[in-house]
Amino acid sequence: MFDFNKNHKALVLTAFGVFLALSLGVAVFPAYQMEDYTPIPDQPKMSDAEIKGEDVFISEGCVACHTQQVRNIEMDKTWGQRPSIPEDYYYSKQRMDVWRQTPSILGSERTGPDLTSVGERQSSAAWQLLHLYDPRAVVEASIMPSFPWLFKEVDSTQVDTSDVIVAVPKDIFDKPGKKIIATEDAINLVAYLQSLKQPKLPEGSAPKFIPFSEKAVKGKESEKESAISGLDGEKLFMNTCAACHQKTGQGVPGAFPPLAGSKIVNNEDPTKMISIILEGYNELKGYGPMPALGDQLTDAEIAAIMTHERSSWGNNAPPVQVEDVRKVRDSIVKNSNSDVQ
Asked: Going along 123-164, which residue ranges are E strands?
């Protein structure tokens, strides 16, 4: 019956049966099972701009180098708050048609960093646009290709109030009377990247990371010890601020201001610097806007970062206490509540 050397019909039917079983088990059944999942409570729906941005993300091939999945192992902990679950992707692109599932956005390799929570790690639209225009402008060792076709070079006189001007350093683009503006595709792509944030799960239901080695367990213990002894301001700065202001504190000329030698950073009274971190800032001429970080950083983290910045790169200002940050935050909240009333 299974003499495939002589019975070619049996060979073809068996091969087809194996192919069919694998296709159903690996692709078809899991795809339809995914449609039975429900969204995470309070999970925001994707806006029209974010959906269009996802189309650009796919068409430009970003999925080839960037993943969007945090595996349930300790080594992936750096990419997001928790391991990914199917519900995380509930509001992503819907099925294209009855025959085709949505294009994969999970990626296949990590040539570039995972983007699961890039909307929290790097929420600055100005940074994202400059990074797309020329990645080396903000990440010196980046191997990511630039995407100049997502931008237009126009005369300064032709810039409309609705145009988004990209803060490009002069050593990269220095043409008098010319500006670089973002196209609709670039703006939508950045909107999509900013939307990539892991939804919070109900209390007590978050999956835990599985240590993959003795080294990972020891690393976990050292993190606890670090939390007891105090926050590492330099590490927090590198994870939160260095992408724009650079690890040298020199910033990016024409895009992001330097912290080294800054009067605001070195001011004995840290109030203005704290308010800038909490609420953001868009009044420094010649530089892009800074996003508000009040919702991303705790008072203790802000105090640790500021203390590092005020004592590095030649700066010499007093350390910042957690209570200093708390007072400014409370004042901002109080003023906001009075405005609403």
From this structure: 151-155
Query: In a 10 Å sphere around its CB, with 0-12 CB exposed, 13-18 middle and 19+ buried, how is residue 159 labelled?
Result: middle
Is residue 163 within 8 Å of 178, Cβ to Cβ?
no
Do residues 322 and 299 lie in contact, with contact meaning Cβ atoms separated by under 8 Å? yes
pLDDT at residue number 227: 40
Question: How many other C-beta atoms can be found within 10 angstroms of the C-beta atom of residue 218?
Answer: 11
Q: Which two tokens stand for residue 119?
A: 């909307």
Q: Which two tokens stand for residue 59?
A: 């068409």
Who wins on pLDDT, 125 or 214?
A: 125
Q: Tell me, what amino acid is at 110? A: R
pLDDT tens profile 155-169: 988 888 899 999 888
Of 156, 332, 150, 309, nearest to 242 by C-alpha is 309
Question: Cα separation of 251 and 258, whole Å?
Answer: 4
Q: Can you list the alpha helix ranges (DSSP code H) found in the chain?
A: 8-23, 29-34, 48-59, 118-121, 125-133, 184-195, 214-229, 233-240, 242-245, 263-266, 271-279, 299-309, 322-340
DSSP three-state, residue 40? coil
* Rounded Cα gap, residues 50 and 43, in angstroms: 14
Termini Cα distance of the chain: 84
Confidence at 34, pLDDT banded by 50, 70, 90: low
